[in-house]
Specification:
The chain is α/β, with parallel strands linked by helices. The chain folds into 2 domains: 68 residues, no CATH class; 305 residues, TIM Barrel (Alpha-Beta Barrel), CATH 3.20.20. The chain contains 10 helices and 14 strands. The strands form 3 sheets. An 8-stranded parallel barrel has the order 4-5-8-10-11-12-13-14, surrounded by 5 helices. It has a 3-stranded mixed beta sheet with strand order 1-2-3, with no helix packed on it.
Length: 392
Amino acid sequence: MFTAAVIPATPLPMIIVLDMRVQSSDYKSCNGVKPPTFNSQINIKIIKAIILFICQMNILKNTALVLSFIGLSFSGFPQTDSTKIKGISLVAPSHESAYQEMDTLVNIGTNWVCLMPYGFINETDATITFDIDNMWWGEQSDGLIKGIVKAKALGLKVMVKPMLWMRNGSYTGELQLLTFAKWTVFEEEYNNFATHFAEIADSLNVEIFCIGTELKSFCQFKPNYFNGLVDTLNKNTALKLTYAANWDNYQNIPFWNKLDFIGVDAYFPLLPNAILEKEAVKRSWVKTKFELKDFAEKNKKQILFTEYGYTSTMQCVKQPWNDKLSKTVNDSNQEIAIGALIETFYPQPWFVGGFLWKWYDGKTNLPKGIATDYTPQGKSAKKAIKNYFYSY
């Protein structure tokens, strides 16, 4: 459980070697030495006492502390790169682009980018149209490939997340196909859509592939389909896999055990307040934070926020998914909401990181309503995000 040995290196200083297996850590570094993350076997009070003793006695002036870890890094999760995913979802450019905004993302501390090809569902015949000339360039294979190549050249890691639109404007999570035959057609169509972009991603050494986004009814009616899709991708690619569940449905996805991360589009409703204070927003996260922690530990998978973000408006945390709730500009609210989320989740060992929604590629792609849009471009949140990303 716990062993300590004092090994004389020279008469002074000495080297203290600690082997620890404990549960969890949010401790601050002391004299430049940060305590380890923990596993499960030791009473946390003992660890607190040890750290307090080191700090109070200022023992590190005369010793070097060598921490040796055994087994898992925390509570059933495998040891991974300690760098959190500080990602941003890049909106596909409408026309051929050099992806110049990726340089900006690197400069603000982004280390991952999410690229999103699209397909369009025709409910009449259950078909999916994708990779055709009249779609936006960045939503097609050519745009995706060039985006991945540019990201890799800049040292960015990549998640590819194919997305679907309903041609009638309905929400994809509520897709209804009224006959068994249509569902069978849709399964084949979706398989072609997903595997096409997975093959591109795998060929270019993309790190994460998201097998679907907010497909609530599809997952509900056809859970075995996704089991088969994941098995195929695991067999034929080296991609790490996730699925982007909506905030209100992540606990109902039956195939998390087959994926590498639990993906959540984190638009959880928080406060109705028109004017925000960061500490109040952080307090409003407490219940959800512990629910996500318990779910991660139960499934032995880290949580990945496949999307998170807020409009720059009043009441932006009341219904974060609803960009029409308020059109009253408030840049400070957006900055506070993003900061509260990052401060709440990024220190947690069961949280691997997330992808901010969203960022546009160049001035020609900016929407008319950018003043209240989710993007932090040209707003106070941009500088705040840089500070946060360089802190984790």
